[in-house]
Amino acid sequence: AYYPMEMSDVLRHIRNHEGTYAMVVLPCQAKAIRDIQKTDRVLGERIKFLLGLVCGGLPGKSMVEYVALDNGVNVEDVKKISFRDKNIADLNRQYSVTLSVTEYCSIKSRFPEESFGFSYLNKLFHYRACNVCDDIFAEFSDAAFMDAWLPEHRKDRLGTSICIIRNETLKDILHPYFITNPNCEPVDISVAIKAQNSVGLIQRKKKQSYFKRRLYRRLGYRTPDDHRMTFSAVERLKFFIRAMQEFLIQNKSQKLWSLYKEQAVTFDKYKYTMKRYIRLVKKI
What we know:
Blueprint: H1 8-16, E1 21-25, H2 27-39, H3 41-46, E2 47-53, H4 62-70, E3 80-85, E4 96-102, E5 105-110, H5 115-121, E6 143-147, E7 161-165, H6 168-180, H7 189-197, H8 201-218, H9 233-261, H10 267-281
Parallel strand pairs: 1-2, 2-6
Antiparallel strand pairs: 3-4, 4-5, 6-7
């Protein structure tokens, strides 16, 4: 789901109800839970598995409001949200978000060309911390799941997924399912790496995030420590330009959206200004 999920209620439920649990989490959540488990014996014993999702960054809840408003609907009237809807008539890259307003009325916004794709790809509402995150494969989880963005799957109608399993106990649980399912087959870890590299995620979250951490520190932000990396002159210029484009667009969006929420500007003014500003910034 392209939506922020607060997990303290879930952790409180696990702590107050005996049993064994598996949690589906983002990379940052997996790391946070592992840190908690070091000092919380109950959570350490009861949370048996963390199932991670490969993540390219998380937008705030304002993205859903943007999609709703762009389709003429007040977000308060939205009853249900379904992310990553797929249609047999579309390719897997053309997934949609569906906002249900009534039983008979819903809004569908497609990726990448409509308001869902525009707001997500330009990171209008992304959390700033996502810009400096370098965890692609949910490294603290017991298993990680991802899209197979590979040429041989480009024409898939419903999509193909890749799973990395790191936990032997979980492997024993899932292995019978995988070997009896005709849609499943083993692949080398290089396939998972290639799948994410084809959409630029590895370059963006390893090399670029390292560069952005250094840039953000100079701008006064606190960022995680990292290992030293070297860059060519071309990489330095390219990463600096992209980091500044991202930073400028997000700053502009945050300030202008705040004005919209204060009713100082209209939504149409926000949308028009951002589209014009993004075109200008990306000419750099």
